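Researcher: Let's do a round of design. I'm pasting the structure tokens now; please hold your answer until I've finished.
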């Protein structure tokens, strides 16, 4: 048998949790990990969608894949999904903190405290809580990784989605700090995601006219991303192929953008 250039990207023997994995980017990540041979637990606020996505991925890839309801802002549900994963698969080596959401503010000069707090709880604290719940199992695993789905909005002016962008900026800092805390034990990285057109944009209150403009972003590649674009980067960061990479933010945004798309 000849040299296998993709051996380092295979995930056989690994078990992953993907939060928010029932649809869009999360589902693409779960599918890529399963396709590379990992056992996957999809943790999602919608338990029915999680189970359906898991069944579809298992049928397509032949990998063991389960789905379970999990509100990542609830500690008891985090602990339950981690316990269920370890019970079903015998361990845990890979965590993808993919959950994230933020709505558009009509008036960025009058954002209630509660919106900032809720966004921080969902986009930042949940990743920390999930990481710490998984940590005892990650420490016992080979090629243990934590990968966070970040946002390009955390690195540019984003006044129209300020609570979300601020919380994602905090996630970047947390990632670097946790990477240093777990140095030589668990690799921790983030993917800074640009414009990926999914149903989530409509859910966030971004109207059709803006979505049309987003189809032609001011990026070096001249197109919005796909869930698979992000999933490919996450697979690399989770796989042994990136074993010399930790504490890094990997930009996956088509070459960036310099023009605000929403505006006021």
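Researcher: That's everything. Go ahead.
Model: Designed sequence:
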């Amino acid at each position: 048998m000849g040299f296998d250039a993709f051996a380092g990207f295979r995930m056989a023997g690994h078990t992953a949790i993907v939060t928010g994995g029932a649809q869009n980017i999360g589902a693409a990540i779960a599918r890529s990990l399963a396709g590379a041979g990992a056992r996957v637990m999809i943790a999602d606020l919608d338990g029915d969608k999680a189970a359906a996505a898991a069944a579809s991925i298992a049928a397509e890839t032949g990998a063991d894949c389960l789905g379970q309801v999990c509100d990542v802002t609830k500690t008891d549900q985090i602990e339950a999904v981690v316990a269920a994963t370890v019970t079903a698969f015998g361990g845990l080596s890979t965590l993808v903190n993919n959950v994230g959401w933020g709505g558009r503010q009509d008036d960025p000069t009058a954002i209630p405290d509660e919106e900032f707090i809720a966004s921080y709880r969902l986009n930042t604290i949940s990743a920390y809580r999930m990481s710490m719940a998984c940590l005892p199992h990650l420490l016992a695993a080979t090629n243990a990784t934590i990968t966070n789905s970040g946002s390009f909005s955390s690195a540019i002016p984003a006044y129209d989605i300020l609570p979300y962008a601020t919380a994602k900026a905090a996630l970047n800092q947390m990632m670097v700090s946790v990477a240093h805390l777990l140095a030589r034990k668990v690799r921790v990285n983030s993917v800074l995601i640009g414009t990926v057109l999914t149903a989530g944009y409509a859910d966030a209150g971004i109207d059709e006219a803006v979505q049309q403009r987003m189809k032609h972003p001011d990026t070096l590649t001249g197109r919005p991303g796909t869930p698979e674009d992000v999933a490919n980067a996450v697979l690399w960061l989770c796989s042994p192929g990136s074993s010399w990479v930790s504490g890094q933010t990997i930009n996956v945004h088509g070459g960036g953008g310099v023009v605000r798309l929403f505006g006021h």
